[in-house]
Amino acid sequence: MVSEPRVVVYDACVLYPLNLRNVVVQCAVDRLARARWSDDIHEEWIRNLLEANPGLARERLERTRRLMDRALPDALVAGHRRHIPAVSMPDPKDRHVVAAAIEAGAEAVVSADRHFRDGDLKPHGLAVWRPGDFLMRLYRADTEATVACMANARRNLRRSAPTAAEFVAGLRRTGKLDEFCGALDRHLSDL
User: Fold this and answer.
1) pLDDT in 10s for each residue of the chain, 191 residues
2) Where are the beta strands (DSSP E) in 40-191?
3) For the whole model, what pTM was predicted?
């Protein structure tokens, strides 16, 4: 087990695809990381998912939100908006994510958003980790615990019940986790 899990804020784009959300939330449940998010981040991933999939019911996504908050009661950051005026980002709509990371005392923002750059976050004592980089950091720190966590994440998918190979293929389809999926390919029997 990672001795002191790192505090990270998950950006909405990490919580948007089901497969990726399942994995990163499970990392926090299994205490490989201390995940943080805000109501603003929740609203953003829900809004974006509804825009891309108009047939989805908002209540279903709100249920997911409640389950996430219940599973990780310390994850929800409040009081972060006071930091927004001090944050400068290429896309001003991203400032709330950095503000949440500042309020949470996070080490990094986990984001696939190209607007998140280390140079913009460094003045706030933050780094940006791409989802694949974040998962590889966990894997390198404690391979056994990370593989066990991925096995838990696969078990979460009771409806689709993917095989280990199908689970890894689903992660690979996100387009953000090639190196991590390559590492997981070596552990299919443990997933």
Assistant:
1) 446 789 999 999 999 989 999 999 999 999 999 999 999 999 999 999 999 999 999 999 999 999 999 999 999 999 999 999 999 999 999 999 999 999 999 999 999 999 999 999 999 999 999 999 999 999 999 999 999 999 999 999 999 999 999 999 999 999 889 999 999 999 999 99
2) 76-77, 108-110, 127-129
3) 0.94
d(CA 65, CA 5): 22
List CB contacts of 38: < 8 A, sequence separation 6 or more: 76, 77, 78, 80, 96, 97, 100
Contact assessment for residue 139 and residue 146, using Cβ atoms and an 8 Å cutoff: yes
Contact 2, 138 (CB under 8 A): yes
Distance of CA 43 to the CA centre of its chain: 15
Residue type, 54: P
Could you tell me the CA-to-CA distances from 65 to 16, 41, 72 in Å, in that order?
11, 10, 11
